[in-house]
Design goal:
alpha+beta, 3-stranded antiparallel β-sheet
């Protein structure tokens, strides 16, 4: 592993432990040349996942897109960054546990909505209104009624 400070390849691991998500390893390293310390993360390489969009275009899975959508829906709501990160981790775990090479954006959206419904009601409605592309107030009200009936 190259040192990010001096580009020396002479580094060593001084501490290893599981990262917060328990799906990667956090390693503290020491450069033998400049003496500086830095952190690296080791994660299992997953099968590349292709997302099939609504218009049938295909693109590589990008976790940050799910995070961005959830963050927008949770804006000014009492939801912590850790809760959002955990929600995205859970969605990602479900996606990759399917062991499929392709997944539709609709399936991902439904997973996110299921998790948001349990986390925060307003965030769920916000996400659903964008995701389901409500055309008018009536469809919006129908979704609210479904949620209130549960």
């Amino acid at each position: 592993m190259k040192c990010p400070f001096c580009n020396s390849e002479n580094t060593r691991v001084i501490d290893s432990r599981p990262a917060d998500d328990n799906s990667s390893i956090r390693r503290r390293r020491l450069c033998d040349e400049c003496g500086k310390r830095f952190t690296t993360y080791e994660k299992v390489e997953t099968i590349p996942l292709i997302v099939i969009k609504k218009d049938n275009n295909r693109e590589q899975y990008d976790r940050s897109k799910i995070e961005a959508g959830v963050l927008r829906s949770c804006h000014k709501r009492p939801v912590s960054v850790n809760q959002i990160s955990q929600l995205v981790d859970e969605v990602e775990t479900e996606i990759f546990n399917r062991e499929e090479k392709e997944i539709s954006s609709a399936q991902i959206g439904e997973l996110v909505m299921d998790k948001l419904r349990d986390l925060e009601a307003v965030a769920y409605v916000r996400f659903a209104s964008v995701y389901r592309e409500f055309k008018d107030v009536n469809t919006f009200m129908d979704e609210l009624k479904k949620m209130l009936d549960k």
